[in-house]
Amino acid sequence: MKKTISVIGSASASEELLKIAYAVGKEIAQREGVLICGGLGGIMEAASRGAKESGGLVVGILPGAESVAANRYIDIPIRTGLDEARNLVVAVSADAVIAVGGELGTLSELAFAMKSKRPVFGIQTWKLDESYCGKVNLVHVDDPREAVEKAFSCI
Amino acid sequence: MKKTISVIGSASASEELLKIAYAVGKEIAQREGVLICGGLGGIMEAASRGAKESGGLVVGILPGAESVAANRYIDIPIRTGLDEARNLVVAVSADAVIAVGGELGTLSELAFAMKSKRPVFGIQTWKLDESYCGKVNLVHVDDPREAVEKAFSCI
Amino acid sequence: MKKTISVIGSASASEELLKIAYAVGKEIAQREGVLICGGLGGIMEAASRGAKESGGLVVGILPGAESVAANRYIDIPIRTGLDEARNLVVAVSADAVIAVGGELGTLSELAFAMKSKRPVFGIQTWKLDESYCGKVNLVHVDDPREAVEKAFSCI
Amino acid sequence: MKKTISVIGSASASEELLKIAYAVGKEIAQREGVLICGGLGGIMEAASRGAKESGGLVVGILPGAESVAANRYIDIPIRTGLDEARNLVVAVSADAVIAVGGELGTLSELAFAMKSKRPVFGIQTWKLDESYCGKVNLVHVDDPREAVEKAFSCI
Questions:
Q1: What per-residue confidence (pLDDT) applies to B134?
Q2: Between C65, C81, C84, which is nearest A81 by CB?
Q3: Which sign does the torsion angle of CA C86, C87, C92, C95 carry?
Q4: Residue D129 has what pLDDT?
Q5: Neighboring chains of A (3 or more beta-carbon pairs < 8 A)
Q6: Alpha helix ranges (H) inside D54-103
Q7: C-side interface with B, Cβ within 8 Å?
Q8: Pairs of residues, one from chain A and one from chain D, whose beta carbons lie less than 8 Å apart
Q9: Which residues of chain C does A65 touch, with a Cβ-Cβ cutoff of 8 Å?
Q10: Are C84 and D115 a contacting pair at CB < 8 A?
Q11: Taking residues A25-36, what's their average pLDDT?
């Protein structure tokens, strides 16, 4: 069974975050991990491109029942027909999760990933107040290599 | 079409939070709203009991395909067979959402509810850092009556 | 807990089938059952109208995250945001299932309902060849009253 | 983007059907298709083994949130946490679908696949009466090679 990492983040993001996502994808592929993402644009596309350009394999878990919306770096489109509920699948599909930035969709994925006890790492993503819940296992890291190294060390 | 409010929160909670949830359910029923919840124990059961004891109607959106796990105040069990993905349904089913406390499941519901642009109110629930996202439309309130009044005023 | 019956069928149907669906809804309401359906037009709307005009309560489990597509007889819209996957929820939500006519969506619901061991009755619906599977527990009946009587006798 | 074929069928099956599923997997891999399946035993495992032993890539779309139930030939486990609703994902994920035998779960997948207008081929699977619906696009074939050849010719 191959090692899998889900990269989560928004369909639109700053240049800085896109560069980070690209580097995360690259680092995953260089360690022979399979990149799983939501299959669309923005952070998903940047990470996919990073993985693809380093010879990696990219799985895109799409909200619709068709693959037309998939970014061009997706090797294996998983068409779900589940709309937003595909976020749950992206969150729990992989051995570990790395968030880059992110908005409300990413927040739902972080919640599901943590609930399913996946190792979760984040770069410039949601900061969650631990005062209400002792179980926030989201580790904030500074750079792509650190995120990917830590993710692989947990698998 | 009846007015509906989803009340979200954990299956286990402090006495203080359970009392708050009970009061939230009561206030919803007194305004002839239908209470929607996840159908299980803890906050869900306390809110259901509050609504039921004030003559309200209670819908429980259950994770399993059977109704055996439903709390005893549920009038209409919606068995989903979706496991955790039923959180999405709880979050977007109603006209407005009120969170009481909550852990990671509640966080996923808050994210989905905000993403679907529902009015969302919270009592002692997740505080979300707005520095990463301008769209956090979660309004923190202090007491059950205020939460329910504000929720109804948005519908 | 109230008794619930899911009525399944297509969004477009012949006049004859619409009349049957209307009568099914009426019979359910007269026995104080809650009608659950997919919330849209055609068979779903006819059954909803039948139940509503007999003073019944109607739950519509909608594919989208908004209630705008709900037919006007829905009392409680359950917005799912699950698109086609809401068929699973319609199929397993209730204590028993009655199919009136139906196309491929109805076929998926019949399959899920039978898999979840719900009592399932059908009027002019899919005939399933038992030669490949001994578990086809779909009972074909001729008229609405018979369908509803048999469904209630199984709950 | 790689070509993908979903193979669907039961978790327990006769020796004859298991051999057919194995051959289907083999034929898919020999044409460099990616095999998608439900990831568990029986038909799913036999097809996975066939693909794997011919050097193919195998994706298993699992009902649970963990990969422990995956058969040993799965390269990429997609953990969904959706329970039975993962059938929808298996049905619509791929470019084409091949059913080998099958019970009620397979019937739900056939319905979703046809509804999403995927090319669908079946070997000893459900025979669906067309008298109620003109849209049954399920083509019955006799042997694995024919099924896979026809599936690829439609993609």
A1: 57
A2: C84
A3: positive
A4: 78
A5: B, C, D
A6: 86-93
A7: 1-2, 4, 34, 36, 57, 59, 61, 65, 67, 70, 74-82, 85, 88-89, 92-94, 112, 116
A8: 79
A9: 83-84
A10: yes
A11: 98
Q: What is the mean pLDDT of residues C108-113?
A: 97
Q: State how far residue A83 is from chain C, nearest Cα, in angstroms.
A: 6
Average pLDDT on B103-112 reads 96
Helix (H, G, I), strand (E, B) or coil at D57: strand
Mean pLDDT across the stretch B67-81? Answer: 97
Angle between helix axes C15-30 and C43-53 (nearest 10 degrees) is 40
Q: Which residue of A has its CA nearest to B130?
A: A126
- Cβ-based neighbour number of residue A55 at 10 Å: 10
In A, which residues are within 8 Å of B124 by CB distance? 132
Residue C149: what pLDDT? 98
- pLDDT bin (cut points 50, 70, 90) of residue D12 is very high
Q: What is the pLDDT of residue A130?
A: 72
Q: Do B112 and A114 touch (CB under 8 A)?
A: no
Q: First and final CA of chain C: distance in angstroms? A: 12
Residue D25 contacts residue D35 (beta carbons within 8 Å): yes
Residue with tokens 């770069």: A123
Nearest CA in chain B to C115: B65
Neighbors of chain B with 3 or more C-beta pairs under 8 Å: A, C, D
What does pLDDT average to over chain D? 95
DSSP A26-86: HHHHHTTPEEEE-SSSTHHHHHHHHHHHTT-EEEEEESSSSSTTS-TT-SEEEE---GGGH
Measured at the CA of C85, the angle between CA B154 and CA C119, to 5 degrees, comes to: 110
Q: How many residues does chain A have?
A: 155
What are B84-95's pLDDT values in tens digits?
999 999 999 999
B10 versus D131: which is more confidently predicted?
Answer: B10
Decide if D116 contacts D91 (C-beta within 8 A). yes
- A66 CB neighbours in chain C (<8 A) are none
- In A76-143, which ranges are continuous DSSP H helix? 86-93, 104-115
Mean pLDDT over residues D77-101, rounded? 97
Does residue A149 register a pLDDT over 70? yes
Neighbours of chain D (3+ CB pairs under 8 A): A, B, C
A129 chain-B contacts, CB cut-off 8 A: 126-129
Contacts of D111 in chain C (CB under 8 A): 104-105, 107-108, 111
Position A133 scores a pLDDT of 61
Query: Chains C, D: CB contacts under 8 A, how many?
Result: 80
CB of B116 closer than 8 Å to CB of B137 = no
Whole-angstrom distance, CA of residue D60 vs CA of residue A98: 22
Q: What is the pTM of this model?
A: 0.96
Q: Which residues in D lie closer than 8 A to residue B83 (C-beta atoms)?
A: 65, 81-83
- Give the pLDDT mean for D72-82: 98
C-alpha D112 chain-centroid distance:
13
